[in-house]
TrEMBL record:
<keyword id="KW-0029">Amino-acid transport</keyword>
<keyword id="KW-1133">Transmembrane helix</keyword>
<feature type="transmembrane region" description="Helical">
    <location>
        <begin position="40"/>
        <end position="60"/>
    </location>
</feature>
<dbReference type="GO" id="GO:0022857">
    <property type="term" value="F:transmembrane transporter activity"/>
</dbReference>
<feature type="transmembrane region" description="Helical">
    <location>
        <begin position="258"/>
        <end position="280"/>
    </location>
</feature>
<dbReference type="Pfam" id="PF02653">
    <property type="entry name" value="BPD_transp_2"/>
</dbReference>
<dbReference type="InterPro" id="IPR052157">
    <property type="entry name" value="BCAA_transport_permease"/>
</dbReference>
<feature type="transmembrane region" description="Helical">
    <location>
        <begin position="12"/>
        <end position="34"/>
    </location>
</feature>
<keyword id="KW-0813">Transport</keyword>
<keyword id="KW-1003">Cell membrane</keyword>
<dbReference type="InterPro" id="IPR001851">
    <property type="entry name" value="ABC_transp_permease"/>
</dbReference>
<dbReference type="GO" id="GO:0006865">
    <property type="term" value="P:amino acid transport"/>
</dbReference>
<keyword id="KW-0472">Membrane</keyword>
<feature type="transmembrane region" description="Helical">
    <location>
        <begin position="67"/>
        <end position="86"/>
    </location>
</feature>
<feature type="transmembrane region" description="Helical">
    <location>
        <begin position="98"/>
        <end position="117"/>
    </location>
</feature>
<dbReference type="GO" id="GO:0005886">
    <property type="term" value="C:plasma membrane"/>
</dbReference>
<protein>
    <submittedName>
        <fullName>Branched-chain amino acid ABC transporter permease</fullName>
    </submittedName>
</protein>
Length: 290
C-alpha cells in the first residue's frame, strides 16, 4: 500500500494530465457534434502543431507558451482551409467519404512530416521544464499546472463562444438541424469550416502546452488522439462537458494504473474502461441514447 502523499500526488498529476487530454478531446468532440463525423486527421494535425512550436523555438527561440499567439491562429486557418477547400469538396456531402478523406489526409500529413523531419525525435530544452510547485508535502509539475489552468480557460472561452455569440448560435443551429439552419440564411459550409478550425485551434493550444514536457516526431499525435477517442466515447459523442470530465477521469485512471502496474502499463486502465463503456453504456456519460 502506498503512502497517502503518493496517492494524492498521483491523483493531482492525473487530473493535470487529464486536463490536457480533455482539450484534445474537446476539438474532436466539437467536430463530431457539428459535422457528425470522426476526424481521423486529428492526430496528424496535432503533430503539425507540435512541429510548429518546436520550429519556433529552434529557429528563433520562441518560448512554447508565447508561441500560442502565432500557432493558434495558424492552426485555425489550417483547419478552416482544410475543411472548406479539401474535406468538404472531396466528400460531396457523404459522411463515408468524409471519413475516407480525413484518413487519407492523416496519411498524407504524416508522410510529409516524415519526409521533411525524418523519424528523429525532437525535444525543447526550457528552463522550467522540471520546475515544481510545492503544495504542502506534494510536489506538482509547473508545466502540468499551467496546462491544467489553460485547459480550464480554453473550455470557458469555448463555452462563451458557443452560448454567447452569433457564431456559437449558428454552430449549435447547424449541429441541431442543418436544413433548418440553411432556410434561415446560415452559411452551413462556412460554419462547418469554422467548427473544424476551432477544433484544430484547440490542437494548437495543446501543442504549446505539451512541448515543454513532451517530445515530437511525425507520429507523436497518434499517441494522444488514441486516448482522446476513448475520452470522446466515455464522455458521450458530441458532448463538451463529457469530454472535459472524461478527460479528467482518464487522466486519473492512467496515473493510478502507472503507479500500480508500472509506466509501461500506464494506459492499461484506459482501454479497460473503453471496453466497459462500449459494453454497458455505449452512449457515454453524457451522450444521448439513439
Amino acid at each position: 500500500m502506498f503512502p497517502t502523499e503518493i496517492l494524492l500526488e498521483a491523483l493531482l498529476n492525473g487530473l493535470m494530465t487529464g486536463a490536457i487530454y480533455a482539450l484534445i478531446a474537446l476539438g474532436l468532440t466539437l467536430v463530431y457534434g457539428v459535422l457528425h463525423i470522426i476526424n481521423f486527421a486529428h492526430g496528424a494535425l496535432l503533430t503539425c502543431a507540435m512541429f510548429l512550436v518546436w520550429g519556433g523555438f529552434a529557429l528563433v527561440g520562441l518560448d512554447p507558451y508565447v508561441a500560442l499567439l502565432p500557432v493558434v491562429p495558424l492552426m485555425f486557418a489550417l483547419g478552416y482551409g482544410v475543411q472548406r477547400w479539401v474535406i468538404g469538396p472531396a466528400s460531396h456531402g457523404e459522411d463515408n467519404n468524409i471519413l475516407l478523406v480525413t484518413l487519407g489526409l492523416s496519411i498524407i500529413l504524416e508522410n510529409a512530416l516524415l519526409a521533411v523531419f525524418r523519424s528523429d525525435t525532437r525535444t525543447l530544452q526550457t528552463d522550467y521544464a522540471f520546475d515544481v510547485v510545492p503544495v504542502g508535502p506534494l510536489l506538482l509539475s509547473t508545466p502540468r499546472l499551467i496546462g491544467a489552468a489553460a485547459t480550464l480557460v480554453v473550455t470557458g472561452l469555448l463555452w462563451l463562444l458557443l452560448n454567447r455569440t452569433d457564431t456559437g448560435r449558428a454552430i449549435r443551429a447547424v449541429a441541431h438541424e442543418k436544413l433548418g439552419a440553411q432556410l434561415v440564411g446560415i452559411d452551413v459550409r462556412h460554419i462547418y469550416a469554422v467548427t473544424f478550425g476551432i477544433g484544430t485551434a484547440c490542437l494548437g493550444v495543446v501543442a504549446c502546452l505539451l512541448m515543454p514536457i513532451f517530445y515530437v516526431n511525425p507520429r507523436s499525435g497518434g499517441v494522444f488522439v488514441l486516448v482522446a477517442f476513448t475520452i470522446v466515447v466515455l464522455g458521450g459523442m458530441g458532448s463538451v462537458p463529457g469530454a472535459l470530465l472524461g478527460g479528467l477521469l482518464i487522466g486519473v485512471v492512467e496515473s493510478y494504473s502507472a503507479l500500480y502496474f508500472g509506466d509501461s502499463l500506464g494506459q492499461l486502465g484506459i482501454f479497460v474502461i473503453f471496453i466497459l463503456v462500449l459494453l454497458f453504456r455505449p452512449s457515454g456519460l453524457f451522450g444521448a441514447r439513439a
